[in-house]
Amino acid sequence: MSSARYMDGIWKNLVDMGINTVFGPVTWEDIEPEEGKFDFNEIEAVIASAKAYGLRLILLWFGSFKNGMSTYAPSWVKKDAIRFPRMLLQGDTGKLTNSGVLSIFHSECLEADLKAFAKLMEYLKREDRYRTVIMVQVQNEVGLLGDSRDRSQVANDIFNAPVPGEIVKFIAEDWEALLPDFQNNFPGILKVIQKYASSPDIPDWKALFGDSEATDELFMAYHYALYLEKIASEGKKIYDIPFFTNVWQKNPNADAVAGGGGTPGVYPSGGGVPEVLDIWQKFAPSLNCIAPDIYLNDYSATLAKYRHRGQPLLIPEQRRDEYGARRIWEAFGTYQALAASPFGIDTLKAVNSPFTKHYKLLDSISHFVLKAQRNPNSMVGFFFDELQEDGSDLNPPRAIRMGKYDLKISRAFVFGTPGPGAGIVIQLESERFLLVGWGFKVEFKATSPRSTLTGILRFDEKSVVDKVTGMLRTERRLNGDETRSGAWANMPNDQPDPGNIPIPITIPARTMIAEVSVFSLE
After folding, report:
1. Which CATH architecture has domain 379-521?
2. Whole-model pTM above 0.70?
3. pLDDT category, 282, cuts 50, 70, 90?
């Protein structure tokens, strides 16, 4: 998005893909190429084009940090290491090297970034009258790469000074609410922390938390959080728009660039990974959420962790293939996600993008999804991947209770080999449910101990007449073979596999929306 001319060839394709909101960067070097001289012409043209196509924007502020580096800082910042010091790394030989990353321990770096960000906020408040920009990401995947903490003299002095009382007090008082990822990093620390919670004589970081990379990461997380909080809090005073930051995830089983790493420094040390998510939530309160970028991690487990303390879930980056697309149903349906954004989506054509089918179907039933997100336990999202080569299934059936019925959600099955699937089930009324998606089936069982039979009254294929109001039209009734005579509601794939059984019950997915009414006899 550094080029409005480039984007002019992109917008229509994004609309054709069913996208309604675009994540794109605005960089410090582009808006302040010379110190004190600001240029918003390019972003002005981008915003105007997005509005013309009916799209919203989420701007990503690439200021001091992007992917753990400082590559989008202006040249006048990059070339002045005296005024804008860099953090230092310690290699295996013990020799210090320049990381190239702006220091979070020097006020000049922070103040220069803050001034530029403030100018951006002033511009948006003044010029974006139609609120095309709806959120702003503050920095991008912050954290130090190459070492677990900054080894410069100023950083060492702070590390060897007493731990701030606000951290000690927070950990002592909030221990039970902290994520297990944090607790497991510091086993046995609670008694030590409680000893110093009200003491004026707090030890330094190493003495209190131990000599470990986990301590280094905690130290960096606290100071990165303070850095972003100062920028975000000042920005909100100017323009009160939702802010967030995103997180490069830890993954010991993957060392891919931006997609993993097992130790702090292999992944950016100090970013808001689950081990220090509580610290970020506490000390950067002007960020409305800390958002995970998910490529190689367990998608479901990551979603659960980033709803910690009830914060909103936002996925700024994720896989853009079919594997990734199936998973967004769980994000929206089970974890109330605000957005699920595949990285690099502008390089895919709508006609062959796996997200086109998913986004357009979700968009058509957005009225029901948004309403259900406000009604806890009324909706569940899920996905089923392809079976393994040996026939094993890594996605077991889902069990959920909705009101007075227990639901079992499993793969759609006619004959032959069941395929992949994804979808959402929404409880509309006590005995009425909306099924959206493909490749799954739902079985219902009344929870009443007096129930002798649970059955399906109606199973109707629906289409959307008005997506704003949620008006649906019945296209056909599927009450016979399609429900196994009332045993389940089947939402088949586009091309269900009949196998080698010569009975022609192959029910292809059509609208991928159905309504089912159930009953119980007591």
Report:
1. Sandwich (2.60)
2. yes
3. very high
